[in-house]
């Protein structure tokens, strides 16, 4: 997927003028927030669980090499295979060669952000295979050739009519005049079409919400059950996961899982939380004959030991974007690549480079709501600020901004001059305003006055008035 | 350099770690062997009778139907009535679970019973459950010869026979029971909380996305 | 200070926006502090807390301004700021900026410990339970982000407002959602910022309140600017003006004296 992250301002403008998208964002956002709040309030231990979750992941990150080794050992011990992939290219190659080794034609997929990140669908298609997304939302956007707009609700930007139009255009084997209005009908249709795909599939690819070092298990959390059909029906189950998804034990997994569903959808538990360990056992009547775990780095380990290490605690619940007022205004596509919202503002510069992604950490008011709800207590605003620091140090900050900042800082270091200049500026503004309480337009302040008035200063600075009061002995 | 060496070497370099760091290794081994419990919500740490009650409440909240039965002998009638009430076919795909052998299916001749993993056409499955987790009203289904995983997902209606003494308070209790009874973790452990659902079309929850539309729990035991 | 019965010596950190746009807020702060028994001084060596540089990624300038601010407020029993944003910068971010500096980190921590946002200082530190003020109107309150999430200011202004004669409070449903100001954000991404303040203005209107209050000039300029552009009659003021009973001293933010309010 080709990033358009550099064009965030234009993307955002387009999103803001898309009335349908704006309606969707307005209603969806409130639902997520309310459900999470209620779920968190219902569990008295929730806040302390956030501390525990953070501590587990911190411990893992400090010992990531050892836990990965033990995970590998456990997977191999159960008859599974581990593929270590440093880059997206390595992971694509590893997956394709597994598919080829079983002469696969159809590959079903559970939802995986990492699959989006490495563009596995395009790669498989180019090699003549047919990848089929099975998460309903992912399936819809795959048919529409669009990227996801939310990490847990990939098609949230679409209406049921959009979905109906898409199905009618693509499911040409069904009667063209069928009625497709209600979501239940749409879902039943997708279920029927995808059932046939599940039957055909030779390989199923899922992501992993967690990997458990103790048992060599991978864990997926879904509500639809598509991830389970994806991994149970084909001969081969490939799990695609990044290095930081590991937790030590089943107990640690439970701590993270208690946070995940509540933070993501506000559920007490998602409908399906599945622990997969190795291939089917000799005595099993179903399940995959092969179990492969593709462990991808793709820039994660380079964040260890840096000020961005803590972002590796992320469990991809989406709470940060659900609570982000910027995401709420522009939606996920404006972010131009796989990870939107605050987590995207931290991850995308790491994965795409600042030259491509510099807008994202800047497009934040630092309102702090993301950090306030992050189940892993990731200090997202602080990390966005770190990116701004890198940007400033690398002189990627726009020149006008740098010059303005430098001029202001020059005065701010010289209090007497600063107060004098402030007095002059305020007086000039007052004259310019001609006694009006506000400016509808002001030179150099277009960004502000295009959308709102600028309240006029009262006329003199506080420092001037205070000095006067002191002189007059009150 | 292999991907493995690149990744593990990269981690060690970034963290300033050595491979022969025995103290660190010991900490990790200890945690994996002892697998200490984390913070377990008080909600599930209650006496067994209350656990069953909590399980029932939470499972119903997750859109399961729960029917208490005194004994396995009552299962055929309960299943037949449940299916008839919903106008569903009386054809069952039953897990080859020895724990279900005592169910006298012949007592209800209207029921057609076959056993084995699910096939695409199967509309109704009946399985046991390794445990029920009261904390969230969740079923813990462990794969094995007596419990093919497809039964949990392919049929439209999944009926689960859960013995009351299999209900635990918390997830940790359920895992401990699994470690004690099975030793190794089976290929698949499904924690199932309610029927399949999706909110992917306009954020309205619809049941029966890919997995079962209905999850009916027969809670058996006096 | 209670034991010695001495009047606490408070340094007022005015903040750039109060200094430039709304001196009335500074005087309201002074009045509230003096009424509560403090001796207020305004060090002339203060300029800006450095947050614009900090948030622009210019850590060197931010650190330099932090040191200057620390030096300017040495010796006061308390430092009081009529802004959660600048207060948060001093309280939360100065120690972070100067962490590891053997000379300055302790001084930063010391200042952070002595620094308080105005309303929080009155209620949480001085134990002020009520103010002697009167304001006729239905007010709604916007929680500015830094005050709320960095300093835990939520109940304090509402508690004091409830004691103001004539005030009725109509809560803003999304009081905790950002108004879209965000410092330079509002001019770097004006369209996004506009959508956010539009939503805020619509909510303010829906409460039916005739007055919007908040504790940060940034948010207030933003929301007032939007409301006046929309031709709204809602009056916008800093909460200190109402608490100090000084709403007669100046028209609402964005209004000229002739327009009253």
From TrEMBL, chain A:
This is Iron-sulfur cluster-binding protein. NCBIfam families: LutB/LldF family L-lactate oxidation iron-sulfur protein (TIGR00273). It comes from Azospirillum oleiclasticum. Gene3D superfamilies: Alpha-helical ferredoxin, NagB/RpiA/CoA transferase-like. PANTHER family: LACTATE UTILIZATION PROTEIN B. It holds the Pfam family LutB_C. Residues 304-335 form the 4Fe-4S ferredoxin-type domain. The keyword GTP-binding does not apply. SUPFAM superfamilies: alpha-helical ferredoxin (SSF46548), NagB/RpiA/CoA transferase-like (SSF100950). Keywords: 4Fe-4S, Electron transport, Iron, Iron-sulfur, Metal-binding, Repeat, Transport. Signal peptide: none annotated.
UniProtKB/TrEMBL annotation, chain B:
Residues 124-220 form the LUD domain. Pfam families: LUD_dom (PF02589). PANTHER family: LACTATE UTILIZATION PROTEIN C (PTHR43682:SF1). This is Lactate utilization protein.
From TrEMBL, chain C:
Residues 10-91, 139-223 form the Cysteine-rich domain. It comes from the Bacteria. This is (Fe-S)-binding protein.
């Amino acid at each position: 997927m080709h990033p358009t992250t550099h064009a965030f301002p234009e993307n955002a403008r387009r999103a803001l003028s898309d009335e349908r998208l704006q309606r969707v964002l307005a209603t969806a956002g409130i639902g997520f927030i309310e459900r999470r709040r209620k779920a968190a309030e219902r569990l008295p231990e929730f806040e302390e669980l956030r501390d525990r979750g953070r501590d587990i992941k911190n411990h893992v990150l400090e010992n990531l090499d050892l836990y990965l080794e033990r995970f590998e050992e456990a997977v191999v011990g159960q008859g599974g295979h581990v593929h270590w992939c440093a880059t997206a290219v390595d992971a694509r190659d590893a997956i394709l060669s597994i598919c080829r080794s079983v002469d696969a034609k159809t590959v079903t997929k559970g939802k995986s952000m990492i699959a989006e990140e490495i563009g596995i669908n395009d790669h498989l298609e180019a090699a003549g295979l047919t990848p089929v997304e099975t998460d309903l939302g992912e399936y819809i956007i795959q048919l529409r050739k669009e990227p996801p707009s939310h990490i847990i609700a990939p098609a949230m930007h679409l209406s049921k009519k959009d979905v109906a139009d898409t199905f009618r255009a693509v499911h040409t084997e069904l009667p063209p005049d069928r009625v497709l209005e209600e979501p239940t009908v749409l879902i039943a249709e997708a279920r029927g079409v995808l059932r046939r795909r599940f039957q055909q599939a030779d390989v199923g690819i899922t992501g992993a919400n967690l990997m458990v070092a103790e048992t060599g298990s991978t864990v997926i959390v879904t509500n639809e059950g598509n991830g389970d059909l994806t991994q149970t029906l084909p001969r081969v189950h490939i799990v695609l996961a990044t290095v930081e998804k590991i937790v030590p034990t089943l107990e640690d997994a439970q701590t993270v899982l208690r946070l995940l569903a509540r933070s993501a959808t506000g559920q007490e538990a998602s409908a399906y939380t599945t622990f997969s360990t190795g291939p089917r056992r000799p005595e099993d009547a179903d399940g995959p004959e092969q179990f492969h775990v593709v462990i991808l780095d793709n820039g994660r380990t380079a964040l260890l030991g840096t000020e961005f290490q803590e972002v590796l605690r992320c469990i991809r619940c989406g709470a940060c974007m659900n609570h982000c007022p910027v995401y709420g205004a522009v939606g996920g596509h404006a972010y131009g690549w796989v990870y939107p919202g605050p987590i995207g503002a931290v991850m995308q510069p790491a994965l795409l480079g600042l030259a491509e992604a510099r807008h994202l950490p800047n497009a934040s008011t630092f309102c702090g709501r993301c950090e306030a709800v992050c189940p892993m207590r990731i200090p997202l605003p602080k990390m966005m600020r770190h990116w701004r620091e890198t940007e400033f140090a690398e002189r990627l900050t726009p020149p006008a901004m740098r010059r303005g900042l430098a001029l202001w800082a020059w005065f701010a270091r010289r209090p007497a001059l600063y107060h004098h200049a402030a007095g002059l500026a305020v007086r000039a503004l007052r004259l310019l305003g001609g006694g009006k309480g506000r400016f509808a337009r002001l030179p150099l302040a277009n960004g502000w006055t295009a959308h709102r008035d600028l309240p006029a200063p009262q006329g003199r600075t506080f420092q001037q008035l205070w000095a006067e009061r002191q002189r007059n002995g009150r | 350099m292999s991907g493995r060496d690149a990744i593990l070497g990269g981690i060690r370099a970034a963290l300033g770690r050595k491979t022969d760091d025995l103290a660190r290794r010991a900490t990790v081994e200890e945690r994996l062997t002892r697998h200490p419990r984390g913070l377990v919500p008080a909600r599930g740490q209650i006496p067994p009778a209350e656990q069953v009650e909590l399980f029932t409440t939470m499972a119903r909240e997750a859109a399961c139907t729960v029917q208490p039965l005194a004994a396995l002998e009552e299962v055929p009638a309960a299943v037949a009535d449940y299916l008839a009430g919903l106008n569903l076919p009386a054809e069952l795909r039953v897990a080859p679970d020895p724990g279900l052998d005592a169910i006298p299916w012949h007592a209800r001749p209207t029921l057609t019973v076959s056993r084995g993993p699910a096939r695409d056409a199967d509309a109704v499955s009946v399985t046991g459950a390794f445990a029920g987790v009261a904390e969230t009203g969740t079923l813990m289904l462990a794969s094995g010869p007596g419990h093919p995983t497809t039964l949990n997902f392919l049929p439209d209606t999944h009926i689960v026979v859960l013995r009351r003494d299999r209900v635990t308070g918390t997830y940790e209790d359920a895992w401990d029971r699994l470690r004690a009874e099975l030793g190794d973790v089976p290929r698949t452990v499904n924690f199932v909380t309610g029927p399949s659902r999706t909110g992917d079309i306009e954020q309205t929850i619809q049941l029966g996305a890919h997995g079962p539309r209905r999850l009916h729990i027969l809670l058996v035991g006096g | 200070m209670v034991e010695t019965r001495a009047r606490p010596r408070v340094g007022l950190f005015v903040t750039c926006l109060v200094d430039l746009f709304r001196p009335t807020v500074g005087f309201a702060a002074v009045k509230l502090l003096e009424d509560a028994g403090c001796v207020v001084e305004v060090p002339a060596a203060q300029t800006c807390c450095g947050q614009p540089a900090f948030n622009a990624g210019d850590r060197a300038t931010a650190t330099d301004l932090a040191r200057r601010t620390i030096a300017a407020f040495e010796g006061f029993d308390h430092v009081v700021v009529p802004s959660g944003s600048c207060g948060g910068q001093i309280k939360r971010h100065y120690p972070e900026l100067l962490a590891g500096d053997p000379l300055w980190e302790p001084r930063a921590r010391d200042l952070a410990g002595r620094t308080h946002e105005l309303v929080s200082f009155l209620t949480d530190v001085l134990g002020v339970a009520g103010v002697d003020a009167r304001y006729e109107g239905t007010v709604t309150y916007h929680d500015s982000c830094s005050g709320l999430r960095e300093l835990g200011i939520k109940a304090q202004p509402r508690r004091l407002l409830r004691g103001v004669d004539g005030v009725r409070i109509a809560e803003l449903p999304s009081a905790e959602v950002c108004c879209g100001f965000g410092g330079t954000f509002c001019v770097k991404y004006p369209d996004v910022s506009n959508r956010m303040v539009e939503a805020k203005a619509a909510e303010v209107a829906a409460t039916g309140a005739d007055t919007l209050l908040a504790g940060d000039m940034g948010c207030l300029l933003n929301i007032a600017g939007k409301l006046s552009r929309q031709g709204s009659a809602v009056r916008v003021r800093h909460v200190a003006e109402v608490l100090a009973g000084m709403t007669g001293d100046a028209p609402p933010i964005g209004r000229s004296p002739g327009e009253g309010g």
